[in-house]
């Protein structure tokens, strides 16, 4: 699971500034090597044998050896100069590329802000972020960053009672969400993962908060402080991974995970999916009993993501160390994969 490219605009600007500083130092190095070359050339041109020491026995041999060494140093200087010039040219090209990338980031952030301003949270423009579940993933453009959740802690949990998340035949409100069949298995086989819910579930921070609450119910997390810690961290991840389950960001069909046979949603089997961008293998291995097998079901998706985080990063059951161990869950640190 990943969050964009993993860089902020300020970081790109700093890298660009560092490259320019290196270019300046290369210029200073050119001046110094130029002076050294001048001294060496003068040394080679000086006819010491014609001076007062010319009659000293063996002096000519010494002068010949000195000249050989000076010429060897000159050859090394020429090699160094060629390498330096090539590096300087490459640095110049990299500075230009960084400037272009910074502009692309700024445009992506502008479009993300426009999308988030629309009702329902809006879809993030461009590609959704890529996961780093087993197999890793290439980063993709990300929104400006999550808003630190400030809503009250989710209500006291209700144990799932079958038929759907929350015991009411589904976990939507007002008929907006499907009513998936709940599985009473924990870990499942990859072949049991279903893909029927693509684009059918609600998006936005409030909806994701509800989905997290119901996933915590299924996982048996009842302590208010633990629920608050998990809710804040997983909301931050959802904002970075899928812009709170926005329809256009629920499947990543273009990163390194996007391979394998086409499955039920018409996408390659390996694609990361859902509000928390699980790949099917990880979703299946970390599936939580009492949630559906639909990878697009946000309750099942976030429950599997929390189980994965606990086992992979050794996060405590109460989630008190979630933000410390998983950077992507910390709104005060830059985006990073998880």
Automatic annotation (TrEMBL):
The keyword Coiled coil applies. It comes from Kitasatospora phosalacinea. InterPro entries: Lysozyme-like_dom_sf (IPR023346). The lineage of its organism: Bacteria, Bacillati, Actinomycetota, Actinomycetes, Kitasatosporales. Residues 110-183 are annotated as: Disordered. Residues 125-139 have a biased composition (Low complexity). Residues 140-157 have a biased composition (Pro residues). This is Transglycosylase SLT domain-containing protein. Signal peptide: none annotated. It comes from the Bacteria. Residues 161-175 have a biased composition (Gly residues). Residues 63-90 form a coiled coil. Keywords: Coiled coil.
């Amino acid at each position: 699971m990943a969050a964009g490219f993993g860089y902020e605009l300020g970081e790109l600007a700093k890298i660009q500034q560092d490259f320019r500083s290196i270019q300046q130092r290369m210029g200073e190095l050119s001046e110094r090597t130029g002076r050294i070359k001048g001294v060496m050339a003068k040394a080679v041109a000086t006819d010491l044998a014609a001076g007062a020491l010319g009659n000293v026995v063996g002096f000519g041999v010494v002068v010949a050896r000195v000249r050989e060494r000076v010429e060897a140093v000159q050859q090394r200087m020429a090699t160094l100069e060629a390498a330096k010039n090539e590096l300087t040219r490459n640095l110049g090209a990299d500075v230009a590329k960084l400037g272009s990338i910074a502009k692309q980031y700024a445009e992506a952030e502008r479009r993300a802000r426009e999308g988030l301003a629309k009702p329902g949270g809006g879809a993030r423009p461009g590609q959704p972020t890529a996961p780093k579940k087993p197999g890793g993933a290439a980063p993709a453009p990300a929104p400006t960053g999550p808003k630190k959740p400030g809503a009250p802690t989710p209500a006291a949990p209700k144990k799932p009672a079958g038929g759907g998340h929350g015991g009411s035949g589904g976990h939507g409100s007002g008929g907006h969400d499907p009513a998936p069949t709940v599985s009473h298995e924990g870990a499942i086989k990859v072949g049991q993962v279903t893909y029927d819910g693509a684009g059918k579930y609600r998006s936005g921070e409030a909806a994701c908060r509800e989905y997290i609450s119901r996933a915590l119910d299924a996982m048996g997390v009842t302590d208010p402080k633990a629920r608050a810690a998990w809710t804040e961290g997983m909301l931050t991840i959802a904002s970075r991974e899928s812009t709170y389950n926005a329809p256009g960001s629920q499947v990543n069909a273009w990163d390194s995970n996007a391979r394998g046979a086409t499955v039920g949603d018409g996408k390659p089997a390996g694609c990361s999916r859902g509000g928390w961008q699980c790949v099917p293998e990880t979703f299946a291995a970390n599936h939580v009993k009492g949630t559906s097998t639909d990878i697009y079901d946000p309750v099942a998706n976030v429950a599997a993501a929390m189980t994965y985080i606990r086992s992979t990063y050794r996060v405590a059951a109460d989630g008190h160390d979630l933000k410390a161990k998983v950077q992507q869950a910390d709104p005060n640190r830059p985006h990073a994969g998880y």
